[in-house]
Design goal:
- The chain is α/β, with parallel strands linked by helices.
- The protein folds into two domains: 204 residues, Alanine racemase (TIM Barrel); 128 residues, Beta Barrel (Lyase, Ornithine Decarboxylase, Chain A, domain 1).
- 27% of the residues lie in helices and 26% in strands.
- It is built from eleven helices and 20 strands.
- Strands 1, 11, 14, 15, 16, 17, 18, 19 and 20 form a nine-stranded mixed β-sheet that branches. Strands 2-3-4-5-6-8-9-10 form an eight-stranded parallel beta barrel, surrounded by four helices.
- Helix 6 links the parallel strand 5 and strand 6.
- The chain is elongated and about 80 Å long.
């Protein structure tokens, strides 16, 4: 891939908004037209840039999901008015900002509800909340067996509007029995709460995996994340939906040199040239999110051909053997994730090489990597 107009940036993540729109449409085909969609944009929209992605999606989805108050505030300051649900547990110090920026707070304990009630009263307004029920994830939320008493108390507060009740499925990618048990527990809680007069406009449980595998988990809202960005959370789901990768991660060739046999490349002399070779140095490293664990494992794409990564990956640089690639020069682009001609490197395969999951591979892509949005508007 030759240099394009963004020559200033040492590395960039190109975000194909047309692919994002396509993926969202594919997701909507799977769910009923009565089911709302919350686009999960936490963790910098899985590395894709939270403000740009949120601005593009704001008129296309019903809700946006963030992990923490500060992510929601960033979206609001970016001009996004779509409802925003904070999926994590908000500490007391963050509640005033949540109220001021019209963010929906997830309640996981009764104490938070009373703090919010007082805040709302002081501002002369109502505050929207959603209640998290722990049905087996074991992370945050009211334990389903003994949640009802606290929920009834919260339901009686005058300044809080319970907008939704939801849970999270821990094993939707593999453990079908436990997933169905969680759904049974959640349905049981909903029914019990309903008998006590507690109802909410929204009930939800489905992340990407459950959206694809368990129709009964859709309720009236789904929370897609990874599949929205065109990456499969599990290899066996590739046939369940057709999505397109939204992100490509590229960097620049900043140096090209000839190396004699016996010379070492990078830290600790872990790579010794066995013959004369041509080596390209590329302007990205583990500080940009290209994992050090890819050392001696990965390949990158330069001028449409695979080039093995050699030597230890540095904080700011990668070295690759380009002996077999003609006319490699400073300024050429190297593809770390993405496609060049008919060849491709995916987030999924880099995750396998490093023994992690695609979520982490994407979320690792650092802030200094310039996000460039293509094929759509983000304002």
């Amino acid at each position: 891939m030759k240099t394009t107009g963004d020559t200033y940036y040492h590395s960039s993540a190109r975000i194909d908004l047309e692919a994002l729109d396509y993926n969202l449409k594919q997701i909507k085909k799977i769910v009923s037209n009565k089911v709302k969609v919350l686009a999960t944009v936490k963790a910098n929209a899985y590395g894709h840039g939270i403000t740009g992605i949120s601005k593009f999606l704001e008129d296309k989805v019903d809700y946006l999901g963030v992990a923490f108050v500060e992510e929601g505030v960033k979206i609001r300051k970016g001009g996004v008015k779509t409802p925003v649900l904070i999926l994590g547990n908000t500490l007391a110090a963050g509640l005033p900002e949540a109220v001021d920026f019209d963010l929906t707070v997830t309640l996981t304990e009764k104490k938070t509800a009373y703090i919010l009630e007082d805040l709302a009263a002081s501002k002369g307004r109502k505050v929207k909340v959603q209640i998290k029920i722990d049905t087996g994830m074991g992370r945050i939320g009211f334990w389903y067996k003994d949640a009802l008493k606290d929920i009834m108390e919260i339901h009686g507060l005058k300044r809080l509007e319970i907008e939704g009740i939801y849970t999270h499925l821990s094993s939707a990618g593999g453990d079908e029995d436990f997933t169905r048990e969680q759904l049974k527990r959640f349905n049981g809680f909903i029914e019990e709460a309903g008998r006590k007069g507690i109802e909410a406009p929204l009930y939800h449980a489905a992340n990407s995996l459950a959206t694809l595998r368990y129709k009964e988990s859709h309720f009236n809202l789904v929370r897609p994340g990874l599949i929205l960005y065109g990456v499969y959370p599990s290899a066996n789901l590739e046939g369940a939906i057709k999505v397109r990768p939204v992100l490509s991660f590229t960097a620049k060739v900043v140096y090209v040199k000839e190396v004699e046999a016996g010379r070492s490349v990078s830290y600790d002399r872990s790579y010794i040239a066995e013959k004369r070779m041509k080596v390209a140095t590329v302007s990205a490293g583990y500080a940009d999110g290209y994992s050090h664990l890819l050392t001696h494992k990965a390949k990158i794409l330069i001028n449409g051909r695979f080039a093995p990564v050699i030597g230890k990956i540095c904080m700011d640089h990668i070295m690759a053997d380009v002996s077999h690639i003609k006319e490699v020069k400073i300024g050429d682009e190297a593809v770390l994730i993405g496609r060049d001609n008919n060849k491709e490197i995916t987030a999924e395969e880099l995750a396998r090489m490093t023994g992690t999951i695609p979520y982490e591979t994407l979320c690792r892509i650092g802030e200094r990597v310039k996000r460039i949005y293509l094929n759509g508007k983000t304002d």
